[in-house]
């Protein structure tokens, strides 16, 4: 699993998550202990079921804990804007509740996103809510980030509430995880991974970090690995804007330390996974200004930090200089 981390950052001077920590040796202790200051959870006022509210609260805290571990290990490493993505989510300290930006996202009880065929090709019909849709091979979605009239919003499908929290996965020396990097045993069985993934689509977290939308190019550990090591540079460049890559990057680092061991590299579980390729958001379409400056009369709108009160702003860069890969591309074992 170590390498997944290494290439993610190397591919765009940045972030490839697979099996070798990208910044060399890590300090297991932090000069700035990241578990102290009070932060802001996402808004759960619309969730009426207390059991679900508790589950989502713990899922958010678990997501911050895992992301904080990755941020802590980066230290002073030169990882470009990737580090900013983690900071946007975790905040200056990692007490388990995350940055203030997280509190501006509302979690809704109702499945409010009804995808059209254009939004969800061959599946969406403009009538069926997201969580009830199935692909031809039976795949279903787990959650989505989708702005509504009130701003940044998310919904988690029923099956997410059956997934484990961090304490459950840590039990018995991480027995439930086994010794393989497994999508089914980790991210498909860990609510914190679902929460972290959806926040990557929030422009306040992902786009404000790398100045590009973070979308879904591929899912799961194996596909993220393949993307990071793809022979085509234009494919490798997608690593920096792939949501699941950030998830595996954080999960890699956190669980190696939490479980006290390294894991075998991922294998292709695509045929077995039930929701690997079900799209879960459309962040580009969610931006009402189509990437333009979001300044208003009183200053910035919630999704555009670069805006200024005088209606001027710094335009988002096409790549921020992050996607330059120097040197010849090296062939790698596709079976890794």
UniProtKB/TrEMBL annotation:
UniProt superkingdom: Eukaryota
Gene Ontology molecular function terms on file: metallopeptidase activity
InterPro entries: MetalloPept_cat_dom_sf (IPR024079)
UniProt keyword Signal present: yes
Signal peptide interval: 1-20
Chain ranges passing through the membrane: none
Region span, Disordered: 269-297, 311-336
Entry keyword Signal: yes
Key words, A-Z: Signal
Protein name: Uncharacterized protein
Organism for this UniProt entry: Ophiobolus disseminans
Native organism taxonomy: Eukaryota, Fungi, Dikarya, Ascomycota, Pezizomycotina
